[in-house]
Amino acid sequence: xxxxxxxxxxxxxxxxxxxxxxxxxxxxxxxxxxxxxxxxxxxxxxxxxxxxxxxxxxxxxxxxxxxxxxxxxxxxxxxxxxxxxxxxxxxxxxxxxxxxxxxxxxxxxxxxxxxxxxxxxxxxxxxxxxxxxxxxxxxxxxxxxxxxxxxxxxxxxxxxxxxxxxxxxxxxxxxxxxxxxxxxxxxxxxxxxxxxxx
Length: 198
Known about the structure:
The chain has 198 residues and is an alpha+beta fold. The chain has 2 domains: 21-109 and 187-197, duf1285 like fold (Roll); 112-183, no CATH class. Helices cover 22% and strands 28% of the residues. The chain contains 6 helices and 13 strands. The chain starts with 20 loop residues before the first helix and ends with a helix. The relative contact order is 0.20.
């Protein structure tokens, strides 16, 4: 069992990034490149942020009094590259495989952000389609879906669609405490904090 901020139990995740062929070649050519922590963040709306040393010194990624997100990434090809090479390690730490280097992601809340369609189909912030198994709501009224890909937050613009799906009986609703999400669903919210606590 892991300990420290944003900790998770050891996971055997089936959500392994497919990875671009050029990434696989780079990993084979340079197998011992050190991992990178703290430089990339995913917010609750599915946006990616680059976090340099200055931003990291201002505080942790996400919500809170000392939160510091960094620079919003807008380059479509870079975002597409991140999406194709995004996944978890066996400890539930999510990362982007950038060539030979593993760039661990600071999660504002969950590793997936879901966009819903009117027919109840679900799409991740990376463009992957999946089906919801369970719907959860936390103590603040935030809505989550558990899918074959894992746990994710429903995008704020799609909460009305989730409410309609619940009213139509497509999903049951289970309450959960937000603080329990990482442990229960086996993910690490802040790999950087976990590294610093070891």
